[in-house]
């Protein structure tokens, strides 16, 4: 399953937001992949549980990413997380 989500974190997926997201992805029972979407096309996906992989996407505030996971509940949880400003949300 795939879902596209707009990044709400004011600093994008950098440092703290990337770490919080990767930690949540690692806690899922299924493997999760994330890719940056540019001009409507998803790029090369990376392991969403990897902080460096997530930061390496260079996804900024307001940009779109595509999540891929076999479990819809995991997708819902992770999409909801990205729709928050993780730089301001308490851990």
From TrEMBL:
Organism superkingdom: Bacteria
One matching Pfam family: PTS-HPr
Keyword Signal: yes
Span of the signal peptide: 1-24
GO-annotated cellular components: cytoplasm
Domain HPr: 1-89
Record localization: Cytoplasm
GO terms (BP aspect): phosphoenolpyruvate-dependent sugar phosphotransferase system
CDD domains tied to this protein: PTS-HPr_like (cd00367)
Transmembrane regions listed in the UniProt entry: none
The keyword Thylakoid is assigned to this record: no
Keywords per UniProt: Cytoplasm, Phosphotransferase system, Signal
Classification via NCBIfam families: PTS_HPr_family
Described purpose of this protein according to its UniProt entry: General (non sugar-specific) component of the phosphoenolpyruvate-dependent sugar phosphotransferase system (sugar PTS). This major carbohydrate active-transport system catalyzes the phosphorylation of incoming sugar substrates concomitantly with their translocation across the cell membrane. The phosphoryl group from phosphoenolpyruvate (PEP) is transferred to the phosphoryl carrier protein HPr by enzyme I. Phospho-HPr then transfers it to the PTS EIIA domain.
Protein name per the record: Phosphocarrier protein HPr
């Amino acid at each position: 399953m795939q879902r596209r989500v707009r990044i709400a974190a004011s600093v994008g997926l950098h440092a703290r937001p990337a770490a919080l997201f990767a930690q949540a992805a690692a806690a899922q029972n299924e493997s999760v992949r994330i890719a940056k979407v540019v001009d409507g096309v998803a790029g090369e996906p990376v392991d969403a549980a990897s902080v460096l992989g997530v930061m390496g996407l260079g996804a900024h505030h307001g940009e779109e990413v595509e999540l891929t996971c076999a479990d819809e509940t995991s997708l819902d949880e992770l999409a909801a997380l990205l729709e928050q400003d993780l730089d301001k949300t308490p851990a």
